Amino acid sequence: MSPLDEAIIANDSLPPAQRRTNQAIADEYNTSEAAVRRHRKALKRRSEQQQQGTDAYFGVPIEAISARGKTVRLADGSYEKITWKPGAAERAEVKRLAYEDIAPIFAEKPTPPAERRRSGTLVVVVSDMQIGKTDVRGGTKETVRAVRSAIRGIAQAAAAYDEIILVDCGDSTENFTNTVSQAQTCDMGLVEQIRTAQGVLADAVRQLAKACPSITYVAVPSNHCQVRSGIGRSNRANIAADDYGLLIQSNIQMAVEGRLGYEGVGFLAPSPHLESLTVHAQDGTVMGVTHGHAAGSKGRVADWFRGQAFGCVAGMQNARVLLHGHWHSFSVQTVGDSRQIICAPTVDPGSSWFQNASGESSLPRLLTFELGQGTSSGWRLWS
Q1: Which long-range contacts does 253-257 make (Cβ < 8 Å, 24+ apart)?
Q2: What is the DSSP letter of 60?
Q3: Whether residue 330 is found in the same domain as residue 347
Q4: What's 330's DSSP letter?
């Protein structure tokens, strides 16, 4: 707050007979009478906004505003500028609606089947949904239908396992800030993208909890879900943890905590500044998980894995399997001392840009595989 603002507040708190005129205040602070009027209007507006909780001009939560200045002239003649945390309005709205969105999904207590036919760990991978994206195979409606259909089939097969690792491998939302064209190719706004992806992943937890008593929900940051200050890869707004996929995981975690039947559901995310993690299967087999964009290209993922292992980042030196997404097509590669690199398929509506550039495309699928004895096996694609 400027000295002029403080003087106006102090003056306006006096009894009417003792208040100075705008011109008297302007003379003291070597400014114009019009400037005093503009400052008084801005102070009044801010006071009203504090009560409402949202900045009326910029439409972002008051608590997200970290600085103000004087560059925008508003309708009342005052000037205003703010610096705010990008994505704050969207995250606040999703948080506000989270309970009514998610709570009904978990209202019924899941009862996993008592009889177990065999033990082991099943990994269920949901990668690159990019909810909100439209392309050659349709849009959000088609993507949601495909994921839910696949999860129903997976849940039936999952009853054979003692443990499930559910992995959101990133890019659950399309977002608007990766490329300029996204503003024209999305079929819903960012808040609805997050809420829709959240509903799909919450339903996956519910379905799998009916099949298996032990579930670990893993999520990692990704390029499409990054909170950005502008369009492009170089405009990440904050630390890696500022990510819409991690927000979804956090909301689901709050929704299931303390609910009967969900005591065996755990949650795992990277530390705030990292983009990868390691998770342990029931028998101790270690799997690394990352989105994949940090490698730069699919052909460089093995080098990225070696670097992370050599640097002992997030326990990668112990990982026998690395799971990633981002490159949209399923593959399994063996590197080093028989370690595996698994690229998960996408379940998005396709990429006409990539198809036009390379001639290649991939079918929308979810991936499952068994994890144990220091390796992965039994890979299966679901639709």
Answers
A1: 253/217, 254/98, 255/98, 255/99, 255/102, 255/103, 255/105, 255/106, 255/202, 256/106, 256/205
A2: S
A3: yes
A4: -
Residues 299 and 320 in one domain: yes
Cβ proximity of 183 and 234 under 8 Å: no
Report how many domains make up the chain.
2
Does 182 have pLDDT greater than 50?
yes
Residues 192 and 132 sit within 8 Å (Cβ to Cβ): yes
Q: d(Cα 143, Cα 127) in Å, to the nearest integer? A: 12
Burial class of residue 53 (count of CB atoms within 10 Å of its CB; 0-12, 13-18, 19+): exposed
Beta strand spans in the chain (E)? 65-73, 79-84, 121-126, 163-168, 215-219, 265-268, 276-280, 286-290, 321-324, 331-335, 339-343, 366-372, 375-382
On the question of pLDDT at 237 being above 70, the answer is no
Task: Please tell me the predicted confidence (pLDDT) of residue 83.
Answer: 58
Here the tokens at position 296 are 């730069």
Query: Encoding tokens for residue 30?
Result: 């070597």
| pTM, rounded to two decimals | 0.77
User: Contact, 330 vs 340, CB < 8 A?
Assistant: no
Q: Which domain holds residue 49?
A: 3-84
Q: Tell me whether strands 339-343 and 321-324 are parallel, antiparallel or unpaired.
A: parallel
